[in-house]
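Reopening closed ticket. The problem is back. First fold of the pair:
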Amino acid sequence: MRRGAAFGLAGVVKGLGIASLKKEGVMAALQAAIEEKKRGEEASNAKEGALFALEALCETLGRLFEPHVVGALPLLLDTS
């Protein structure tokens, strides 16, 4: 279910344009979900969903998303 939502988000961003990532606060929300320090199922579900969203954005937007990957790379390397 989270994977489908991630691809839905990527489709909306593609439709609205790459500028919507910043305008709508998508990247900030994904960053907050990945950096969530709480333990438990809810935090791990949010982290997993955010990682699915990054994957879907990379797949759907391709080269348009590359500048945003640079900012997301430390988050990806720090996930555990």
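Second fold of the pair, where the issue appears:
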Amino acid sequence: MKLIGSKASPFVRKVRVLLAEKALAFDFVEDDVWSAGTAVPRHNPLVKVPALVLDEGDALYDSAVITEYLDGLPGARFLPASGVERARVRRDEALGDGIAEAGILVRLETRREPARQDPAWIARQSDKVDSGLAAVARGLGGKAYLGGAAPSLGDLACACALLWLEFRLPKEFPWRAGDARLKAWAERLEARPSFAGTKPPAG
């Protein structure tokens, strides 16, 4: 397998964490979708990462499709087999992905020249992030992980999203200082080799 993406992307990191947790062999090809020479369109017509190129040459996208496929391969399982338990974990994955998507939109808008920025749009996306952070904290309650005693795919997605916020928008969303539950949960996950080995590059 070949994973194409950016080390800074929360969606790519989610897939890389899952690959590490399952000890699956793969080649990582770093590519910047914003570069004129990007090869991503060859594998994903939507020009988004990650894309997972299978040994047969076919490519899977987006990250939720890739994690669905990877979880079914040999190794630890991060998705329940069926039923409402599986739906809840997929919901938590969608929550993490949604937080990341809204955060990315905030960052893209705030990087435009000030005269072209839309404060209402920034506020709308920021509200989504704040609501998502509150939902993660509620989901944790007094548990170690969203998945209970052990992390689920929902934990991986939400953690990658929150850690991306801390990486790219630390002043806008200081979630670690705002909720002790989120802080302790994130520290448990960051201690795992899969997270320690997939930190985005500085800068």
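Update: turned out to be a display glitch only; the data is intact. The first helix runs from residue 10 to 21. The chain has two domains: 2-71, 83-192. Please close again.
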